[in-house]
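Batch manifest, entry 17 of 40.
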Amino acid sequence: MNPIRIWTLSRVRFWVQLLFFVVTVYGGIVVGPYAADKITTALPALSCTYDRQNSAWCVLRPFQHQTSHQIGDGLAKTGTLSWELVRPLGWSLVIFMGFFLVLNKGFCGWVCPLGAFQEFLYGVGRRFHLISRRVPESWLGRLRAVKWVMLLGVVFGLPLLAGLGWLPGAASEAWCRICPSRILTTLLTADAEQMALAMGDHGDILLGVIGNGLFGFMLTAAFVVRQPFCRICPMLALHAIFRRLAPLRLVKHPSPRCGKCRNCHAACPMEIPEVALPDPQQVFHDDCTLCGRCVEFCPADRVLHLRWGPVTLYRSSAARFRVRSRLELADGSQRRLHSSL
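Output type: structure tokens
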């Protein structure tokens, strides 16, 4: 018998993720080794600048450098905050918004190479029947706060203090020193240099140890926990600030069935319980990555929608749910070994 091959939304997303993974990690081979900074330095996904073969840069590194070397250093020298100091950071934010408005938080769920790699590892765990673990809902409040600490404290706070001269120079790019994407994408290009601890001073050593620890945690936890690092990623927090401005979004039409089957919650890689609530105002949560799995696994017609402005791109359907659930459980486990998503 031939394998069942049905083009579900998840299958489409898999191929989109694979395409962008190749482009963001190895795209510099095609466009040239120095083209990344010419194409963009404000990509809303974790495409690492330390990857010498990438084709676009993550916005978080320019944010750190401008905060440290422009604002922090300028404040230390002049004692006043002026437009000239904040203008480079403002332009990076404008370029970021230009990209962000296209896909909103879909950059996390469809483009980011680190997010795609974690999904791949979780899929491997399901294939080998490892016992998956869910984050207890009682932990969510504290866990959700971490991504804001990462954004405000690590991406902006530590570089600012380094620019003011209050912290060692390593803190000027504190996020890049600990980001798992730096190790992952460079290793995938046969560069093991970023795994080595820099021995310059205590700051270099501390950030290097934290970075290697986070990478090791992500690498092992992702086999049994869905998107373990995405939950604390500062890019997720940065997207959350502007998520209401972009036309692409998740929309719910209330139904009496909402909150009873909780299929959408089970399907969500970020395990967002609010998506199962009847209140449509809570469904598009800070942690949502617009992957669309909740829409796929909703068993009711026209309740959950992925929309671009007034245009519905994909909506929940009882008929599609019946087909979808024959191939895969909501938590990502396979129903049939010969099925293909």
